[in-house]
């Protein structure tokens, strides 16, 4: 764990440059606008350690699978969102010598991510051999209003330097992925053009044929008009590179800014034939409006987003900074403006996980979108609906009926290629079914369930019914050879969580079928016809749910994570020397697999999903047993443990786990943020506040709250939408206030009291 950034409510500030941590800080300073995003790597050349990465949402490449030992059923490729044309580059020379923070001398390095305004600033003072000094200040933002536009500025201020400063803003299509399986280059050049006004570079992905036209314009502005700036601008190009070279003779006191505007358009959004014209037109419009206006409209849009999504915490600046960072990164990556997209675990911040979709979306991100804007949550459900046929193909490939959603995908095809996950981590199917239930319960809108979701549920149920094994001696159903959410154990039998999700899905499917039959007999008949569902199948599903086997430890009154878990050497994390954590960086994989240490919420994940199924004492006993053995080496884990801790009144624990989830990347808890941020767990941090501290749930069709004030907080406040209403919930030491900001009157339950809400009226209750 590190404490690298200055505590601030709205900013992430780094003072001093630590080259050995450059990948970590590059991840932290990621910016995005849903359409595109980039790591916080430098504009100018940097020969130190760095992972340059500019990613375009939905633009991917099928990288041929590379494994040591091929197993039947492995996917042929891993679809990854890939590094694309570098439009950030601005090389700089000072009297002919490259400015390179790996070799140049400098002082007062400072980086600041201003989350309120969505802008990254970096500055330092270059120092020359004779004590000359130049202040460089770089700013960048990706427009939230014009998703194709990015704006960069470099301000140069010569304190006492006399000489020539050269700036070379460029577009470079010669980019690679560090994780390319066969060192392949994923792009080919289609066109490059360069005029005095505009540079253009058009690249296309091999195989998938995504075409990307990037247009750039630059301008130099003298900030010190008394000192003339006889700058010279030359065109400069090479293979797959277009740019301009500005040579600026300066004297002490000179101050100027280079603006670089780029427009990035992809063939996902525009016809290939129009792509270059569209990019140019967008760039021309941006140029005409100018940098300042672009920035103004961008920040106004962000302010409006903050108005809806902000969580305001007082009394705990680190908690405040943590949650704003999470919200900022989430909204920068996926705010629902393109329903074809989904949420990759690293967002735009790195290559790991390929920028594609995991169960993370349904199990961890879903509540954030559901509670703030259910339409976005519905888009996420449709994303899976559109991939149902591929999920059926995926199950068939494994010789099973029904649908098995992939562990990792972008277009519905499984991409994961480790047998213990691809073939065994089948619990992911359960999270997709659960999200359908969660959406329906929260919104009260049954249309998705009945018109689309039910088809998914039936196919997932068919999968479970085929995947279970009947055990005649014990007269029960088991699920053998699986990996539960805890990936620190593989190929186990009867993972309690997986068995629970399977049986629950079968029941929920049957209940939903009954609902459809009651609601609309004709539609039900058509559905049965379409899916070919038989009475035998339904009977079999009922029997499976009745006879599902759940491993249980009688003497402790807890669920056993899976068969034989209790036969392991049962230690707790507190017994481990801190120097051995995280285990995945210190222990052999074999040792991890044999140990009792749990990577992430597993039994606790099941307790989290179904609070109504388990009484508080049962939850407490299980939590007491499993939490001390959980190393939380998946970022997804602490938020779930935090919520469950809140429910059983373990407030200190809930708060400690909250900090761990909300500041996971800022404090680099798992020493792995250099690969990229943990975006999907960031949604969990938000949920830890809303479902955990505020106790939000829907019970008996009523919105309920049971808030408390965690740790040193003096208050917190957030907004949600619920069935056409907008609510603001504020909790402080004395009272819980619920304000109906928009929508019709509504009765909710706070603690055990019914509270009638009327528009613009704030109801308050004493905090318990
Ligand atoms: C976790 C998985 C998760 C994946 C992507 C893994 O480390 O164990 O549960 O889906 O990361 O976030």
From TrEMBL:
Keywords linked to the UniProt accession: Hydrolase
Residues annotated as catalytic: 487 (proton donor)
Residue ranges annotated for the Glycoside hydrolase family 65 N-terminal domain, each copy included: 13-268
GO MF: carbohydrate binding; glycosyltransferase activity; hydrolase activity, hydrolyzing O-glycosyl compounds
Coiled coil: none
Domain Glycoside hydrolase family 65 central catalytic: 324-687
GO biological process, one term: carbohydrate metabolic process
Domain Glycoside hydrolase family 65 C-terminal positions: 697-757
Keyword Hydrolase: yes
Family: Belongs to the glycosyl hydrolase 65 family.
Record PANTHER family: GLYCOSYL HYDROLASE-RELATED, MALTOSE PHOSPHORYLASE
Annotated positions binding substrate: 359-360, 599-600
Protein name: Glycoside hydrolase family 65 protein
Xref: InterPro entries: 6-hairpin_glycosidase_sf, 6hp_glycosidase-like_sf, Gal_mutarotase_sf_dom, GH65_N, Glyco_hydro_65_C, Glyco_hydro_65_M, Glyco_hydro_65_N, Malt_Pase/Glycosyl_Hdrlase
Chain segments annotated as transmembrane: none
């Amino acid at each position: 764990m590190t404490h690298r950034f200055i505590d601030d409510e709205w900013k992430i500030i780094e003072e001093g440059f630590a080259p050995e941590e450059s990948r970590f800080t590059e991840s932290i300073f990621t910016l995005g606008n849903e359409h595109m995003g980039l790591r916080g790597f430098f504009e100018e050349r940097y020969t130190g350690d760095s992972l340059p990465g500019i990613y375009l949402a939905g633009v991917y490449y099928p990288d041929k699978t590379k494994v040591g030992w091929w197993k039947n059923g492995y996917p042929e490729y891993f679809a990854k969102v890939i590094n694309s044309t570098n439009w950030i580059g601005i090389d700089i020379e000072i009297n002919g010598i490259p400015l390179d923070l790996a070799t140049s001398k400098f002082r007062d390095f400072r980086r600041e991510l201003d989350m309120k305004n969505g802008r990254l600033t970096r500055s330092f003072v270059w120092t020359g051999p004779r004590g000359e000094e130049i202040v460089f200040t770089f700013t960048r933002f990706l427009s939230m209003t014009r998703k194709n536009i990015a704006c960069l500025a470099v301000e140069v201020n010569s304190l006492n330097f006399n000489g020539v400063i050269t700036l070379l803003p460029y577009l470079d299509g010669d980019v690679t992925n560090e994780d390319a399986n066969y060192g392949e280059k994923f792009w080919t050049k289609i066109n490059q053009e360069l005029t005095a006004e505009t540079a253009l570079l058009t690249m296309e992905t091999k195989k998938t044929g995504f075409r990307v036209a990037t247009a750039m314009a630059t301008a130099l502005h003298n900030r010190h008009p008394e000192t003339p700036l006889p700058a010279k601008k030359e065109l400069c190009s090479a293979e797959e590179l277009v740019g301009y070279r500005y040579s600026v003779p300066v004297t002490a006191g000179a101050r100027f800014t280079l603006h670089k505007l780029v427009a990035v358009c992809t063939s996902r959004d525009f016809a290939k034939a129009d792509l270059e014209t569209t990019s140019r037109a967008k760039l021309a419009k941006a140029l005409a409006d100018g940098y300042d206006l672009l920035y103004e409209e961008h920040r106004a849009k962000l302010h409006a987003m903050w108005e809806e999504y902000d969580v305001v915490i007082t009394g705990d600046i680190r908690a405040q900074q943590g949650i704003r960072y999470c919200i900022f990164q989430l909204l920068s990556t996926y705010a629902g403006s393109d329903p074809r997209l989904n949420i990759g675990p690293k967002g735009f911040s790195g290559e790991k996980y390929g920028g594609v979709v995991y169960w993370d979306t349904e199990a961890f991100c879903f509540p954030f979108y559901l509670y703030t804007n259910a339409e976005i949550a519905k888009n996420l459900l449709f994303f899976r609906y559109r991939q149902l046929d591929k999920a059926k193909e995926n199950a068939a490939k494994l010789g099973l009926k029904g649908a098995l959603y992939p562990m990792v995908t972008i277009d519905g095809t499984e991409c994961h290629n480790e047998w213990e996950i691809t073939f065994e981590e089948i619990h992911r199917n359960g999270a997709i079914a659960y999200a359908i239930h969660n959406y329906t319960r929260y919104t009260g809108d049954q249309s998705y369930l009945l018109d689309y979701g039910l088809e998914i549920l039936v196919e997932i149920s068919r999968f479970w019914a085929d995947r279970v094994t009947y055990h005649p001696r014990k007269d029960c159903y088991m699920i053998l050879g699986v990996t539960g959410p805890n990936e620190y154990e593989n190929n186990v039998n009867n993972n309690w969580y997986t068995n629970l999700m399977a049986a629950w899905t079968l029941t929920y499917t049957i209940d939903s079928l009954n609902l459809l039959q009651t609601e609309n007999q004709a539609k039900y008949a058509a559905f049965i016809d379409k899916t070919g569902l038989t009475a035998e199948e339904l009977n079999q599903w009922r029997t499976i749910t009745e006879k599902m086997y759940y491993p249980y430890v009688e003497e402790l009154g807890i669920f056993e994570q899976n068969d034989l878990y209790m036969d392991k050497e049962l230690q707790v994390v507190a017994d481990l020397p801190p120097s051995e954590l995280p285990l995945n960086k210190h222990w052999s994989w074999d040792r991890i697999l044999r140990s009792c240490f749990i990577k992430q919420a597993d039994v606790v994940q099941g307790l989290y999903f179904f609070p109504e199924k388990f009484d508080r004492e049962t939850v407490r006993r299980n939590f007491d047993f499993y939490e001390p053995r959980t190393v939380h080496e998946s970022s997804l884990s602490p938020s779930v443990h935090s919520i469950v801790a809140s429910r059983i009144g373990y407030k200190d624990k809930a708060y400690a786990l909250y900090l761990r989830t909300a500041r996971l990347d800022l404090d680099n808890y798992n020493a792995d943020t250099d690969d990229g941020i943990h975006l999907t767990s960031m949604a969990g941090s938000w949920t830890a506040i809303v479902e955990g501290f505020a106790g939000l749930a829907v019970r008996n069709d009523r919105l309920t709250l049971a808030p408390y004030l965690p740790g040193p907080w003096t208050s917190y406040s957030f907004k949600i939408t619920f069935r056409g209403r907008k609510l603001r919930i504020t909790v402080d030491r004395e009272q819980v206030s619920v304000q109906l900001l928009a929508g019709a009157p509504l009765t909710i339950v706070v603690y055990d009291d019914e509270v009638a809400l009327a528009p613009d009226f704030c109801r308050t209750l004493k905090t318990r």
